[in-house]
Amino acid sequence: MQAGYASGLFFITPLGDLFRRRALTLGLILFTTFMWLGCTLTKSFSVFAALSYMVGLTTVTPQLMLPLVGDLAPANRKAASIAIVSSGLQLGLLLARVLSGVITQYSSWRGVYWLGFGVQLLIFSLLWLFMPDYPPKNVGLNYLSMLLSMLKLVFKYPLLVQASVNGGFLAATFMLYWTTLTFLLASPPYEFSSSIIGLFGLIGIAAILVTPWTARYVIDRFHPQLSVILGTGTVLLGQVIGTYAGKTTVAAPVLQAWFIDLGISTAQVANRAGIYQLDASSRNRINSVYMLSVFIGQVMGTGIGAKTYAVGGWLASGSASVGITVLGLLVALGRGPHAKGWLGWDGGSSFKLQTQVQQAGDEGMRAEAGQSGPATGTTAITSRVPGATRLSASERDRDGGQSGIVEKTALA
To answer: Where do the TM regions start and end (predicted)?
Structure first.
């Protein structure tokens, strides 16, 4: 399933830049639902493995929703809007961890899959009823060119690389913690049952619910990199507490879970808020690059966690997690908020956003006509976006008039 998900991130998620997203989303969910039913009913391991790959391949619809939010949200609420969707995604992951622990204790593994099948049907029904349609963003772009353009984006935007590497390290430390936490809590001095261990997932819910507020009052008001640095530092604090006090008191891994979930949620939302401003027509491909790095980090964290715990126990695995988080913090600090190159803090170290008031409608026509005086029916829109510039009339025409004011940003 993990291999299928990685394939879906590369081959399926970029299609959001090419096709109408309602049809694409509904088609993927419906296909996933039937594959999930097959996993539930089959008695053949080879068939189960093949169907699991297909499920992972098409279970990338949340990664279509996040760039869509980046398209629709106003500039001064973009991070808060992304945080709401991202929090929903993380909340689902945590609830799945809790429910799977409870269900497997009182039922068979098929019970988990039947629950997943029902949830897929519910999601499909709700989206069929309420999801509007959106026009394709890149008419005339072919599939092969779209995939090749993802590589070009990596070399074009240093910010995308910085955010992706930071996100990968944070994902690694997240998976390392949750992989080894079960070993810690199931062994002395705790010896908790699987259902109690599963309840640890509930700790992160409070942290996740805080993220939209953090996005609203911090990420949307300052340069996203500030929140990336603060979020990564919060993760590091949690790792230090949990690693070196985790076998002394159960409060240590509880605090560790809280700080990790809060810090990663904040940093991930900030990373996305930054990279989604690089190129509005390529947001799905940009998101694919970012999520591929996150996926690689998850795989890396799981492997490192299992190996280090087998060799040196909780202290060894935790120390590895601390080291990985430090690397993520160095990446966040390695390039300033206004830097144009790959490294350094050229352009200044201020995290304040540029505020630009743009006039539309009659004011623009008066300027072209050489007239002066107040404009009637003019709307003043304040765009608090890093590097925001006004688009020319021809660029606004190419945008298709989908928004009154369009931001062209240059974070890289």
So the answer is: 23-41, 48-68, 80-99, 111-131, 143-161, 168-186, 192-214, 226-245, 257-276, 288-306, 312-333
